[in-house]
Every structure is written in C-alpha cells, then in structure tokens.
Amino acid sequence: MSALICGSVAYDTVMVFDGRFRDHILADRIHVLNVSFLVPGLRRNFGGCAGNIAYNLKLLGGEGHAMATVGMDFGPYEAWFRANGLSLQYIERIDTQYTAQAYITTDLDSNQITAFHPGAMLFAHRGRVPAGAGIGIGVVAPENAEGMIEHSAQFVAAGIPVLFDPGQGLPQFDGAQLRRFIGEASWIAVNDYEGGLLAERTGLSLEQIATQVEALIVTRGGEGSVIHAGGVVHDIPSARAATIADPTGCGDAYRAGLLYGLQHGLDWPTTGRIASLMGAIKIEQHGTQNHRFTRADFTARFRESFGREL
Ligand SMILES: Nc1ncnc2c1ncn2[C@@H]1O[C@H](COP(=O)(O)OP(=O)(O)OP(=O)(O)O)[C@@H](O)[C@H]1O
Ligand SMILES: [Mg+2]
C-alpha cells in the first residue's frame, strides 16, 4: 500500500550569524533598515514536507512517492533522491522556475529571519492524483493552497483515504475551507499550535474534529503526542533524545511513522511510538534529512525507549 505524499520539495539554506540581531537592528532606525550579517556558518539542506516525509518513510522501509513541482536547480536534490532510493515518479520539473527555497538566518539568541521563495511550488496543483496506480494512502502536506485543495478532493474522488497535514499551510485557509478538508480526511495530524488554530478557525473543538475522522493526532514537541481515535485518547510518550541539535522536521519524521503504521495495519499505541521515536532520532541531527538508522538500530532503540518490542 504505497503512499502518495503531496507537499513541498525545497532547499533550506540555514546561516548562523554569530552575533545578536538586537545589536544591529535598532528600534529607532527600523524605518531605514539596511543591515548585512556576516554568516560564517552556512548549511544547505534538502527539505520540504513531501521530501522529508518520503525520506523518513524510506528509512523505515515504507513505500511512498513524493509528489511536487520543482525547478531548474533541482539537480543536486534529484541526485539525493536517487542516492537514497526515493521515487521521482511524481516529481515534475518546471524549467522557468527555481525550486522552492527558504533562506534562514539565525542569531546567537535563536532568533530567525526567514525569506521563503515558493518558485515551482506555486505550480503544485499541476500534479494530479492518479487513479488505479496502487496508491493506498494520500497525504496533503503544505504546498500552494490550490494544490492542497485539489489534491485532497482528488484523493477522495479516487477512493484513497487522506492524511491531512496542514502544517504551516494552515493559516491560508478560512473556517469553511478547513471544515471541508476535515470532511475529506481520514486522519489529521497537527502540532499543538496548529490544533489550536484549526479549532479556532473552524469553531469546532478538537474532540468534535476527532469524531469526524479515524484519528486526530496532536504532537506536542518534547512532551510527546496525543492520538484521538475511535473515542479513545492514546497518550504517546516522547522518546529520549541524546542531544537536541535541531527541532526542524520532527513533525515530518513523525508523520512518516504514522504512514508506516497505517501501511502495516499497526495499532495506534505502536504506530504513535514509531512516530515518536522518528521525531527523537531526527532532533539529534541538523537538517531534516541527515539522520539515518538500520532496522536493527530502530528495533533496539524502540525497546530501550518504550520497554516493549516492536
Ligand atoms: N525534544 C524532543 N525530544 C523527543 N522527541 C521530540 C522532541 N521534539 C519533538 N519530538 C517528537 O517529534 C514529534 C513532533 O514534534 P513537534 O510537535 O515539535 O512537531 P512540529 O511542531 O510539527 O515540528 P516541525 O514542524 O518543526 O517539524 C513530537 O510529538 C515528539 O514525538
Ligand atoms: Mg510541523
């Protein structure tokens, strides 16, 4: 049962300024802001929700394809897809655009200034959900609004159950649009903040939303996650991380665990713990696709983390 993961495929460039923005951005001068930061540290990472989820699902041995539109500069990312055995079947290149990319400058206080260029991602709706291609699960993760709306509806039309994962795409939708996504979804995954925003925009409580889907999953960073399914609330503990290098992408790693559990018909307590351990493994590395493990590592760490066998 292969997953089709609709969402962004993007480059993330992270630059570390070894000073403090507040020493350079002066409150009484912001009407003529013109600052330049020397950034000795620079990392360029492969990212985007669909790329990240597909990468994590592959690590677990699950089956999936990212679906996204990318640009003329996709070459290095394509090589990464190939080197890691990720599917390029639903990746479309648009030669007049750049691949979506974020430029993130952080300072010593962990403040961030980010510029995001959507580029080819603005054409995400060009990808169509195929019927009869052996896709068993759909994912609607952040991309352009039109893409999210159309892909969700196309999954339903093709009879493919959908995991709705609105992430940072959530604020662009109003209550009616969000209620429609909820109606189309079989599962919804949000973090704490997004859960609050979803409830506020739709006028529905999380308990009410949970009754409309097979499962509503709310992640809470280092405090673990909660899965509301079939009238039961499963509390999923977080797994201990050896170091906290970079929390970006924990949500995507977690979602790959959800997909793996769904693909293998696992119960929610097990699926949630796989997802949770994925988040903890991810947080130990910088970037969103720089962690790796073998099946044996994962099984051993699952036992250590939760005191039970996988
Ligand atoms: N400090 C941590 N220690 C252990 N596990 C963590 C930690 N932070 C996150 N996780 C795991 O990852 C899951 C997802 O994290 P989180 O709730 O922060 O997602 P998110 O806010 O969507 O993250 P992002 O969008 O930055 O990827 C958590 O439910 C938890 O299981
Ligand atoms: Mg997230």
Descriptive terms for the model:
nine-stranded mixed β-sheet, UDP-N-acetylmuramoyl-L-alanine:D-glutamate ligase, binds adenosine-5'-triphosphate, binds magnesium ion, four-stranded mixed β-sheet, 310 residues, alpha/beta
Describe the structure.
By secondary structure, this protein is an alpha/beta fold. The protein has one domain: Ribokinase (UDP-N-acetylmuramoyl-L-alanine:D-glutamate ligase, 3-Layer(aba) Sandwich). Helices cover 33% and strands 24% of the residues. The chain contains 9 helices and 13 strands. It has a 9-stranded mixed sheet, sandwiched between helices. The longest helix is centred in the last third of the chain and has 16 residues. The two termini are 20 Å apart. 43% of the residues are buried. The mean pLDDT is 96. Adenosine-5'-triphosphate binds next to helix 7 and helix 8.
